[in-house]
Amino acid sequence: MAGDQSFDSRAFRDALGLYPTGVAVVTAATGGEASHIGITVNSFTSVSLDPPLVLWCIDRRSRRHDAFVAAPGFTVSLLAAGHRAVSARLAGAGEHSLDGLKLLETELGPPALADCLAAFECTREKVADGGDHSVLIGRVLRFHRPQEGAPLVFFRGRYSALA
Q: What is the 3-state secondary structure (H, E, C) of 105-145?
C-alpha cells in the first residue's frame, strides 16, 4: 500500500462490497405534489443508545438529496428478504414514489413499509458533510417491529441471504 500514487475507486468500492449490509428504505415528507418520497439505503447504522440516534447517508448527486436533507424528520424501514423488488425500485434514479406500496402510518408523518422487520421514526438531529455524501443523523422518537423474518442483505453488489 505504501508508495501508491493512484487510488483505484472501483477496487475500493469492490472491497467495501465485501462487508455485508442490511437494506433499508428511508421515507420523508416532501411538502410538494407527491406527499412522501422514499430511497433505498444500505448505510443505516446505530450511533447512540442514549440519546437514541441513528444515521444514514445520501449521495449529494441524488435528485432526492435536497428533499431528504431539508426534511425535519424521516422514517427508516428495515427490509425483509422478500423486499428485493421494493429495494430495487427505490434505489433507482427515477422512481421515488411510494404509490402502490403497502404502507403503515406513523405519528411523525413519513410512512413505514407495512411489512418491514422494524421501523424507526426520527427527527433530524444533524446533517454532516461526508465527502460526496451527506450524513443524516436522526433522533429516534418511536420504533416498532411489525414483522418477523430474515433480513434483506446486500453483499458484493447484489442481494443475498444469511446462511
A: CCCCCCCEECCCCEEEEEEEEEEEEECCEEEEEEEEEEEEC
